[in-house]
Write a structure and sequence with these properties.
With about 900 residues, the chain is an alpha+beta fold. It contains 27 helices and 31 strands. The strands form nine sheets. A six-stranded mixed sheet has the order 1-8-5-4-3-2. The protein has a six-stranded mixed sheet with strand order 14-16-15-31-30-29, with helices on both faces. It has a five-stranded mixed sheet with strand order 9-13-12-11-10, covered by helices on one side.
Amino acid sequence: MENLNIWKIGDVLKMVREKVLYLCIVCLVFQISVHAQLSDKEGGDGYDNYASEVLQNMTLSDKVALLLLPSQNDYYTFSPEKLPYSQNLLLSNQWLINGIEGFATGEVDVPFPDIRAISHLEDEATLEILRNDLLHFAAQEGYKAVVASNHYLFSGTGINYIDEPKDDRDFTLWFLGNQREDNLPVFEMPADLFSKNIPLRKISFNSGSSQSVQPWVLHQDKKKPENFEDLLSYGGVFLADNPEREHARILRAFQSNMLQEDDLNRACERLLTKINEAGIRLPDVNRIPEGVRMFARRRTFEEGLHYFSEHREPFFPANLSTINIELIADVEDQKAEAFAQMVDFHLPNFETSSQPGDYLLWLFDGENLTDSILADRMSEIRQGHPNSGIALFLADAGSYFQNHPLPYGIDALFTGSSDWPLVWEYLGQAAFSGVPLKKSVRREECFSGVRHLSRELPKTRLKIGIPEEVALHRDSLNKIDELIAEAIQTKATPGAQVLIARDGIVVWNKSYGYHTYQKKYPVKTNDIYDLASVTKVTATVPSLMKLYEEQAWALKDSLGRFFVESDTTEKSGITIKDLLLHESGLPSFIPFYLNTIDKDRLNGNVFGRRYSWKYNIKLDNYIYLNRTVSYRRDVFHSKADSVFSIPVAENMFMNTGYLDSIMHQVLEAPMRTRHNYLYSDLGFYFLGQLIPKLSGHSLNYFSRMHFYNPIGMYNTSFLPSMVFSRNKIVPTEDDRAFRKQLLDGWVHDPGAAMMGGVAGHAGLFSNSLDLAKLMQLYLNGGTYGGKRYLEDSVLEMFTGTYNDENRRGLGFDKPQPDTTKVSPASYYASPASFGHSGFTGTLVWADPETRLIYIFLSNRIHPNQYNKKLIEENYRTRLQDIAYRAIISSSREE
């Protein structure tokens, strides 16, 4: 195992298993000090000289511009079109960071959080990481100051505002690298400062005349200045939504002698001095891993999410099969797409129908948030959706809801802290309870009008996150890319999907390669694979568990109770438990299709041991099929009718009556010793048929209605060619032996195909995300999305082991305890873990001890099923090894 001691974590997971993992980890991992390591500058008078020299060369317009700071991010990249406001030295030299709205930092996808999001943080560990992150970025890029709130990142660190902060609406210009308690206050510029000829105060002119005026009061706090001139002489700078307009107004006031230039000079000189100090004293900060910095940023944005509703429950019901969603986006395309991706994650393939949806998700731009615009648009939407539940989503509502109630006709309101695409992603997850939501607190005055409707909601569904969020080492996980590239290069598989989740958070969900070696279709995350035997634990077993809870069957029940045709055979005494544990004595499989060969048209034997002109269809090493093999016309037909109604492949249908022959062959198959372990697909033929006998519904219908649709697994289905487009389905074998075609949208397993594509042992298609939801349901003890699907005690019974001679659970596979034997899972998987593999190159696994889910899907049998490189090189379990080794402070040894 890799030496991860650099994280200084020890055995922290043992101590915090039931606590918030991240907080404990970062507190132990990063003992980061953001106190600047400063060097004294000889000749302190140099500061004043610098300011005086610069000031002498500044025009009156330059001085006014220097003291006006834009509140919007658009101004913080120097651009000639912004003239004359580019006269501000802080902006033209790119010395100033806007911390109010947050800011992007180079190529990193996650922006630095805004002041409102940061105000929600309470743990010092995250704040310390953010401080380090900010200071490192500023030092690296040459920034000298950041305009932000008084309650920003530096409170209590030796970098303090001159007065104690009074509220979150006050701002400060923080000079980075300056530990003196003399950072400058920033005052919001009132919109009506110079409107309607409102005078400022008594101003003395050279003529000796005076003018008596009423002062403009900015704060009720008497410790702070009350009028513009005092604010100016106080040494502050001003925050403006429209700096060009304010620049012109204030410049006119100075030019007309309404304001005195001496006050302006003193304010500029003080600001220039601070600029010079910051330029000399840049902080020397500790570097922290990028992933941890990104996690701190993401977590900060997540903390800024809120939900408001008259109802205490989530907006969507727990059962997603009952909803029809419509999306209306009055926001930029990039933000709408970010939101829609998360909706598609929780509810795949959702489409806006021609009819109004039961639930309408309305995305609205906060910049257009006025009473009239909101009311007019709401009336328009409600007119077309009179009965829909409507949720309004605002990434940044500003202060609108400080004095406004929940808009009429809105059933739920979701808000963020700023208008970044990432916030829209979080809002999309919040709509489905993919992230936890906290109540709005009293200090958030911007929500005063709706705070009584604020609701706290737990996380009940999977969330999209990053490795650091769940204590996984990103660099270790990156080795997955290398190993998958190797597997594709050696043609172990043309492509694959890999998913890793921990603690209910998906941290790795990637697609690799192509559908086939012709490289026509790249694999996408919503493409679906033939699961083969993974069908057992994702369709048959959960359906049986559900029916077991309903007392429809018992482990000791025999086949004879449900299959009367077995009464006269030795199979009648086999119990359901025997079938689930693979201890029934049944053979592993029967090649049913070979029994339908038309012997009258066959020239020679069915198989040959060497390749030749006649025996030219390779099935496996030293097994070649006769090229003259054809199949009985009374069993298969190229067109469907009332007799040939079982679809086997494209333009290939089986006689319905042959289904009885298949089950008869199983009943007549020679038995091995009962209660000895031998993996057998044949037992699951019975179990798949047991579902309709107990419920009155097919396995396809029962699993879809009771699990897939309610959970939101809309990329999961039997008979996929009847549900999905072909370019979404990854093909398997070019079947030259039986169906004489590329199996694209048709189950590979011949027996499952002859059962009509729906069988207890194979036939299901899905993608990694859908399977992760079901595996998370298992780890949750039977719940998902706030709905209970299975009882915890039943899951525990099915995923446990029953004897020392058989590693398996009831239907589930388990790790091999004997290290001298091949295990279906990673050596690091705990004894409590469970899952299953599939012949097509699939593996799903869940570990209750590490809370880890691993999904691997591939079509390793393309174009030939005898391609065993994936198995021989153990790619599936080696990839799983990487996931386990990435766990920080894992106690399991390599």
